[in-house]
Amino acid sequence: MATEQPTDILGEIGGFVARIHALDPHAPTSTELTVRIDGRESRLMLSEPVAQALRLALQDYHDPRDQGRCDHCGGPRLDENFQCRDCGSLNGVFGQMLAERVFGYTEPEPLPPLGEGPGRHSRHDS
Length: 126
Known about the structure:
Elements (H helix, E strand, L loop, with lengths): L8 H13 L7 E9 L2 E8 H13 L31 H11 L24
Antiparallel strand pairs: 1-2
Helix pairs in contact: 1-2
């Protein structure tokens, strides 16, 4: 699964910092962030609101390839079929359902309708 990479990662980070800083331009800078990519370096001064926004953005990011953790071994590598790449287990109810379908599971015959006669579960009008 190929993903598009920004052609200018330094520019993307700088743009993020500038957008957030513009919301509170008088906040004092408290942190210096230096990013070096392929021989290019960018030094950015971050105010606390910008640093907080960057922390939250990194914490809240969810990679679409991340299917969660394995219920069996706790590993973080479930594939798109909810099979753990570490232990091979199928994960959760949905993983089990997929396995049953793949291995030719067939639904059991439906139960007959409730009887008309007396009984605790029969349907009748009184």
